[in-house]
Amino acid sequence: MLNMNKPTKAFRIASLAALVVGVGAYFIGLYNAPMALNEKGYYFTIMLFGLFSVVSLQKTVRDKMEGVPTTKAYFLASAVATGSAIVLLVIGLLNAELLLSEKGFFGMAFTLSLFAAITVQKNVRDSQIQSEPISVEPQLATNASQTETTTKVTAV
User: What is the mean pLDDT of residues 46-63?
Assistant: First the structure.
């Protein structure tokens, strides 16, 4: 594994604050938006879908970088989900009857939220890696001095 520094407390707080601000602003804007409830549900679902998909994609990419086995199918599913969330938001905003400034607001809050979710997930993972103890001694699969016991099963 590469030599990584633990993220600083300031960076972790800033990342979390960006996520809270982005998601909070998006949902407050959505609550106050002059649109039907079904449209609000669409944008709400797109945000949740986007957040999950970028975290999943980032984790898969990070696993690959660290040599953790990952499947191409899951990587592809995560990438397609991330792209789909972004495309669905863009299509929704292009067709929405909102002011251009409102469309820009939703786009920027969405982008900030996705980026912040990736950063928060990275910080959590980096913090966990740094706090795990590193074993210097190799683990032996079997010990010759241990005796194996077997149980015989008899048919009745």
Answer: 95
